[in-house]
Amino acid sequence: MSRNFIYILIVIGIANIIAQLGFIIASLFGFIHYYPFFQLIGSCLLVLFAIDTLKFNRSKTIYLIAGLAFVVAGVLLKL
């Protein structure tokens, strides 16, 4: 992957994290009933995967697998 593509993925991931935090705050005030806790954890792990890819560390597969698992679990459970 090129570095520019990874930077775009990081920006999109951070925007996704901010949107999910907005959903959590809105649900705490009772405006909506959607709690994306697992998706938030998964998105954070996927952003860590992208940052880890830029640094060429070895633990990036753990972030990828755990991040995808949390996102899928959050979508299936829909807390």
Description of the molecule:
The protein has 79 residues and is mostly helical. The protein has one domain. The chain contains three helices and no strands. The protein is elongated and about 40 Å long. The N and C termini lie far apart (34 Å).
SS content category: mainly alpha
Largest sheet: none
Q: Tell me the strand percentage band.
A: under 5%
Shape: elongated
Mean pLDDT: 84
What is the domain tally? Answer: 1
Q: Tell me the Rg in angstroms.
A: 14 Å
Helix segment count?
3
Q: How would you spell out the order of helices and strands?
A: HHH
Percent range for helical residues? Answer: over 70%
Question: Which regions have little confidence, pLDDT < 50, spanning 5+ residues?
Answer: none
The tally of beta strands, per DSSP, is 0
> Distance N terminus to C terminus?
34 Å
